[in-house]
Amino acid sequence: MNGNQNIFDDPDFFEGYLDLRSGRNFNDLLEQPAILSLLPDITGKNVLDIGCGYGINCLQFAQKAEKVVGIDISRRMLNVAMKENSDHNISYLQLAMEDLDRLTGPFDLIFSSLAFHYALDFGKLIEDCARLLAPGGILLFSQEHPMTTAAMNTDHRYVKDENGNCFFKVADYQSEGERHVRWFVDDVIHQHRKISTIVSTLCHNGFVITDCVEPKPDRKAIKQLPALARDLIKPSFIIFRARKGDNHADNT
Amino acid sequence: MNGNQNIFDDPDFFEGYLDLRSGRNFNDLLEQPAILSLLPDITGKNVLDIGCGYGINCLQFAQKAEKVVGIDISRRMLNVAMKENSDHNISYLQLAMEDLDRLTGPFDLIFSSLAFHYALDFGKLIEDCARLLAPGGILLFSQEHPMTTAAMNTDHRYVKDENGNCFFKVADYQSEGERHVRWFVDDVIHQHRKISTIVSTLCHNGFVITDCVEPKPDRKAIKQLPALARDLIKPSFIIFRARKGDNHADNT
Lengths: 252, 252
Fold this sequence. Notes:
CATH architecture of chain A: 3-Layer(aba) Sandwich
Order of helices and strands of chain A: HHEHEHEEHEHEEEEHEHHE
Largest interface: A-B, 43 and 43 residues
Low-confidence stretches of chain A: 248-252
CATH superfamily of chain A: Vaccinia Virus protein VP39
Oligomer: homodimer
Strand order of the largest sheet of chain A: 3-2-1-4-5-11-10
Helix content of chain A: 25-40%
Number of helices of chain A: 9
């Protein structure tokens, strides 16, 4: 698919990832509750899930939505999705988020959980989302927090100082672009973008931002997974909810 | 004035501050060009400058605007403003940003440079700005970047690792509230707020965000003031430009 990165079809990565997604983890305890709390009413609506993975969210949406389209670049992911999370009103499609021009809308909700930090061209992605949404439609996405993607050197980023206080190392924030990250297999490529780039790109494509969340773990979640306390130092995720304006005059 | 913090009337602080503002500094080379690039056309308009300091921006605005109101908590600041930066269409007023209910609008532009990180109640401040703006009016403000205000311990925040790479220490990001900062005099109090709090507070008060900037120093600026290179590691400032929506339905 266009030479886009597809780590999810690397067998080693995939095994590790399945393992990660099956347990109590940052996504289940922190990102998912936060993003789902911003979900609009999708009763009878058309939903697109970009980077749907193995389709957990698609199956949730399918209970109320009229139609759900889940796209992912990974055939392995979609095989799991079709086996475990099918429904009569869900279509799974192998498609990179760089290839949204192959889809036709309109959708009432475009949803994406933790995929947009892989997007090679964020401007085009948001432009495509605007085109695919009905007027008043909602774009709801989470991605790695730009503080997390900033540093080019990702070794030992949580550090204790001489007083035992833990902090996180931010560097290279102003240099947008590729970041090579170790995640199960070496050299997963994330795209670092500034928060201001994300916000402005949404605004300049006719979106009205309605919510922004940097999820904070509560005591209960930290009790279930003590490593979540790290997210008190700096957030792992950022979530935006934006409404497609009726016309571009909305955003001038 | 309500017991609000007024460091600017501390004589030691004030001398150091005058000195800082007079030279080539982060504000002149980084924050001011960025915020002024987002200024709307103010020809014949009414402008409010919150935390106007000694009135440099007010005097600039007065060349085109119909009327400029500059408010500041500090009598010393306003004395300089009235002496050095007066014009027939500028009114300077000693007023804390916590007391905006004493003003009557409507204004076409509310401008604020590097003051909102002192606001005790950001929700009330934004609510007041929405009330004081005409429909379609613009709120344009800069403040310290939340990455900058995050850590409770502000000692030695720029650090070099064993490879000589410089990074910035972020901590306590999820804990909003007072931060005691050393700045000329000890114990200047800033208010740390998450980016998501700033964005959501704007959205939930009927503002349509139209731009966000985290200013990045260019080569020329770094040549004039080498310390600006720090801002390649992480931004010192964040700037938002938002339009007051015609009605609250704009933001649902």
